[in-house]
Amino acid sequence: MYKELRSNFLENSKSNQQRVDKALDIYSDIEFGIYKYLNEKSDLFTVAEKISKASSLLPYDLLKLFIKFKETTNESLKREMLLELHKDIEKEIYSLKFKQVDPVTFKSDKNIAASVEYYIKTKIAPFGIPFIYTYFNFVFLLLLILLIALIDSAATVTEQIFLISLIFASLSYLMVLYNIISEDFLKRRFQRSYINWILLLIFALGMPSLMVFTDAWFRGILVFVMIFIYGYYAGRKCMRERAV
């Protein structure tokens, strides 16, 4: 299982990096095309054509803005929208460059944190991330087996409900925690604000503590609901939109 997961991870990483490189080239071409137009060195249709050809790589918000730009007939409003689009494209370029794992352009003397992060991405992640995948799959399998065994041996309906909710809460907890770790360390989508870190810490430590230090038979249901609420919040508020 580990060998197969590692192979898939390496293939996906290579594909993602190729897509990042391609997007960087296209976005840079668009940015310079808009820059030329704003300085009266190019025409509007040339710029629109460049952006249109990159539609498959544009985030939803930028594509929506571009379509609105094409439908607008007011020339002054078109220029304002193009300026906004230019600013957003520049942000996307910075974001993509940050995601690019390239030993040629990486500055090793930038700072210690950046060097450590680069080492983790290039040396540890190709082995560590597939191991984490394998570990989680193994834990899921054990929990399912445990669920079947415990339900079969439960004496009362209340006990069965507790066991089922406990297993589902555990699975949900692992899935949410795994997705957050994966999105943060691999894709840098987790927004590292104080409130997000505090809520993540409360989630990571609070859910297991609630299960261990309370005796209510419905605590599994309570934890499952809280995990669902936090998972929804994390997906909506803690993650940046995908740049590519």
Mean pLDDT: 80
Give the class from helix and strand content and strand pairing: mainly alpha
* Number of helices, counting only DSSP H or I runs of 4 residues or more: 8
- List SSEs in N-to-C order: HHHHHHHH
Helix content: over 70%
Please report the distance between the alpha carbons of the first and last residues.
29 Å
Q: How many strand elements?
A: 0
Percent strand equals under 5%
Rg (C-alpha, Å): 24 Å
The biggest beta sheet, please?
none
Query: Shape, please?
Result: elongated
Low-confidence blocks of residues: none
The domain count comes to 2
Overview of this structure, please?
The protein has 244 residues and is mostly helical. The chain has 2 domains: 2-99, no CATH class; 128-238. It is 80% helix and 0% strand. The chain is built from 8 helices and no strands. It has helices at residues 2-38, 44-53, 60-71, 75-99, 112-153, 157-185, 194-213, 219-238. Helix 1 runs antiparallel to helix 2. The radius of gyration is 24 Å and the shape is elongated. The two termini are 29 Å apart. The model has no long low-confidence stretch (mean pLDDT 80). Keywords: Membrane, Transmembrane, Transmembrane helix. The chain crosses the membrane at residues 131-155, 161-181, 193-211, 217-235.
Short description:
The chain is mostly helical and 244 residues long. It has eight helices and no strands.
